[in-house]
């Protein structure tokens, strides 16, 4: 069974339609005003309205105020929360929604310790560490830093592209993969051919 596939940082309904048509299992909406892929509520609703049934919607936050998460949950049909900052396990779990916790990986980061700390998360998302950034950088990290005994599912992110994702899947065997910049024509603008090639790469790496 191939890993689940999330296309993150969508800003346009047409990209959501393409992602779903090509086989993405989930799409990600960024609610972080410092990101070039940030969307407001109206744009988020338009993206979601373009999706067929059974494609999950993930809302991404970075150190949000509680009121901001509550505002999005009240206005947008979100299935899963994704936290990319320094949010505590208690904060992440307090919204009573499935959530993912992102960890920026570099030498010395203990992913088993992180997974144990966020044991109620639906998955641990391993991203590349880039000083001052919270994802979407296009940077990769050394996949050898990922242990094979994580107690919760691993979502591999960080610099994945159509060119390297098959190798990543073969080597890491993640439960899911997450891509943003690797399938873009420009920041927040997805390229249908790159999405197609990425999803094919995930399938090829699973064989």
Automatic annotation (TrEMBL):
GO-annotated biological processes: L-tryptophan biosynthetic process
CDD domains, A to Z: PRAI
EC nos: 5.3.1.24
GO terms, molecular function: phosphoribosylanthranilate isomerase activity
Catalytic activity: N-(5-phospho-beta-D-ribosyl)anthranilate = 1-(2-carboxyphenylamino)-1-deoxy-D-ribulose 5-phosphate
N-(5'phosphoribosyl) anthranilate isomerase (PRAI) domain ranges (all copies): 5-200
Pathway: Amino-acid biosynthesis; L-tryptophan biosynthesis; L-tryptophan from chorismate: step 3/5
Name of this protein: N-(5'-phosphoribosyl)anthranilate isomerase
Organism: Crenobacter luteus
């Amino acid at each position: 069974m191939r890993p689940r596939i999330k296309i993150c940082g969508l800003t346009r309904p047409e990209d959501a339609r393409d992602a779903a048509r090509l086989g993405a299992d989930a799409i990600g909406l960024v609610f972080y005003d410092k990101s070039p892929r940030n969307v407001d509520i109206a744009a988020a609703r338009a993206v979601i309205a373009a999706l067929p049934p059974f494609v999950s919607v993930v809302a991404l936050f970075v150190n949000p105020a509680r009121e901001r998460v509550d505002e999005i949950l009240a206005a947008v049909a979100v299935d899963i929360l994704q936290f990319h900052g320094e949010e505590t396990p208690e904060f992440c779990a307090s919204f009573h929604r499935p959530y993912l916790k992102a960890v920026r990986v570099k030498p010395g980061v203990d992913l088993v310790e992180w997974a144990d700390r966020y044991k109620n998360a639906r998955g641990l998302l391993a991203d590349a560490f880039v000083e001052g950034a919270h994802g979407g950088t296009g940077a990769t990290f050394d996949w050898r830093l990922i242990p094979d005994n994580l107690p919760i599912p691993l979502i591999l992110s960080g610099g994945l592209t159509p060119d390297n994702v098959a190798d990543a899947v073969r080597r890491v065997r993640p439960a899911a993969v997450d891509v943003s910049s690797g399938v873009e024509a420009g920041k927040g603008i997805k390229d249908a051919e790159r999405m197609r090639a990425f999803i094919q790469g995930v399938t090829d790496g699973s064989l």
